């Protein structure tokens, strides 16, 4: 007999308070509810996330958001088989709010508690809308992380490349800030870019032909600061956004080709599947270009549904579901892990003097 498995997921690693109920029955996963409360209005006047304000907002919202997720899903509390909560990486004060809340619910329901790596949530998120199976090559592009990883199985990641300075989402947000677009500017840069001339400004593509599939974006920000004085009209802003978007697309195309080579040299007989996940995976221009590279190189290319690219708790519940099936549970004294990496053996590659 096939039992339904119902998981409550909770997410509070940065500036989104989120809760979701997902359910698996006969191998099919359904999202019964997926509630996200973003804190854009709280942080926009500071141009970035203020950890203490974010944590306070999580405290104020988390029970309401979770109640809403449960009522919208139409399940009873007693139907929940396990509680999955993000334990890292992220802002320590924010993670603590969700983790303590999740542990309390698990304890009060007397159900297993599962600590989830937020990045693993992004990494396997397309399993919610496609029939993605392990193993595969992953490009994770979010506000805090940019990595190419060989994903062997749940919990088994090998980093092939990473950013040596800024994350891609960070590069989008910083560029937006220089242009004068409100935080978080990533999604708006894409809109501006649609109206601009992508060949107007020549921007650098750092370490394009070296460092394997490692990437670097800090030089781009410096170059944008340099041309900032030439930005006078709205059209100039559109042109700079378009030039930035084009440069990022070109960098990702080249580095993805390199990542394919490295991945295949290590895994000759594997299925050629490429997954792009994280907040920046919502960018249509990037998606289009990466789909083209995949087609040329005969890789199947999968993205999460656009609603599941940025931070949400359905992807946290999904990791919870996979861990539940393997009976990987955590004790209630499990602590937050603000620097939790997917490949804990990978070297730290940031800062001056780093050899790539
Ligand atoms: O995955 P995510 O929601 O949070 C982290 O875990 O970091 O990613 C957020 C990042 C932000 O930097 C945001 O500006 C960027 O993703 N982002 C985008 C787009 N949508 C979100 N960047 C470029 N184009 C977009 N359409
Ligand atoms: Zn994220």
Q: Top keywords for this entry?
A:
Nucleotidyltransferase, domain 5; 5-stranded mixed sheet; alpha/beta; 356 residues; 10 strands; binds zinc ion; binds 5'-O-[(R)-(carboxyoxy)(hydroxy)phosphoryl]adenosine; 2 domains
Secondary-structure blueprint of this entry?
Blueprint: E1 5-11, E2 16-25, E3 28-38, H1 40-43, H2 51-73, E4 82-88, H3 92-109, E5 113-117, H4 118-124, E6 136-141, E7 146-153, E8 156-162, H5 168-179, H6 186-194, H7 218-227, H8 234-266, E9 273-277, H9 284-296, E10 300-302, H10 314-325
Which strand order spans the largest sheet, edge to edge or round the barrel? 3-2-1-4-5
Spatial gap, N to C terminus: 52 Å
Q: What is the structural class?
A: alpha/beta
Question: What is the number of independent domains?
Answer: 2
The appropriate CATH architecture of the largest domain is 2-Layer Sandwich
Could you please say which CATH topology of the largest domain applies here? Nucleotidyltransferase, domain 5
CATH class of the largest domain: Alpha Beta
Shape: globular
- Tell me the radius of gyration: 20 Å
The main sheet comes to: 5 strands, mixed
Strand content is: 15-25%
Total beta-strand segments: 10
Mean pLDDT figure: 94
Spell out the CATH superfamily of the largest domain.
ATPase, nucleotide binding domain
Hetero groups in this structure are: 5'-O-[(R)-(carboxyoxy)(hydroxy)phosphoryl]adenosine, zinc ion
**Number of distinct helices:** 10
Q: H/E series, N to C? A: EEEHHEHEHEEEHHHHEHEH
């Amino acid at each position: 007999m096939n039992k339904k498995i119902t998981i409550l997921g909770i997410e509070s690693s940065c500036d989104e308070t989120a809760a979701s109920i997902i359910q698996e029955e006969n191998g099919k996963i359904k999202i019964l509810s997926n509630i996200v409360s973003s804190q854009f209005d709280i942080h926009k006047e500071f141009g970035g996330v203020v950890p203490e304000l974010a944590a306070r907002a999580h405290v104020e919202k988390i029970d309401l958001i979770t109640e809403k997720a449960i009522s919208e899903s139409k399940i009873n509390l007693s139907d929940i088989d396990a509680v999955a909560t993000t334990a890292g990486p992220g802002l320590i004060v924010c993670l603590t709010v969700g983790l303590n809340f999740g542990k309390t619910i698990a304890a009060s329901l007397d159900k297993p508690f599962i600590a989830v790596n937020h990045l693993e949530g992004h990494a396997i998120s397309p399993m919610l809308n496609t029939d993605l199976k392990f193993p595969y090559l992953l490009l994770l592009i979010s506000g805090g992380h940019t990595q190419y990883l060989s994903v062997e199985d749940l919990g088994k990641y090998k980093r092939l490349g990473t950013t040596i300075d800024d994350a891609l989402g960070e590069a989008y947000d910083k560029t937006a800030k220089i242009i004068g677009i409100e935080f978080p500017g990533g999604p708006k840069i894409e809109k501006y870019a649609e109206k601009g001339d992508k060949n107007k400004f020549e921007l650098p593509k750092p370490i394009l032909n070296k460092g394997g599939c490692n990437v670097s974006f800090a030089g781009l920000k410096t170059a944008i600061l340099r041309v900032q004085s030439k930005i006078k009209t709205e059209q100039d802003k559109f042109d700079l956004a378009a030039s930035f978007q084009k440069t990022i697309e070109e960098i990702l195309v080249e580095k993805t080709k390199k990542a394919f080579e490295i991945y295949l040299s290590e895994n000759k007989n594997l299925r050629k599947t490429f997954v792009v996940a994280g907040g920046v995976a919502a960018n249509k221009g990037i998606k289009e270009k990466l789909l083209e590279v995949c087609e040329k190189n005969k890789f199947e290319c999968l993205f999460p549904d656009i609603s599941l690219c940025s931070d949400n708790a359905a992807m946290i519940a999904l990791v919870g579901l996979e861990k539940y099936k393997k009976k990987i549970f955590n004790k209630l004294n499990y602590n937050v892990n603000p620097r939790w990496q997917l490949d804990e053996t990978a070297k730290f590659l940031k800062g001056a003097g780093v050899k790539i």
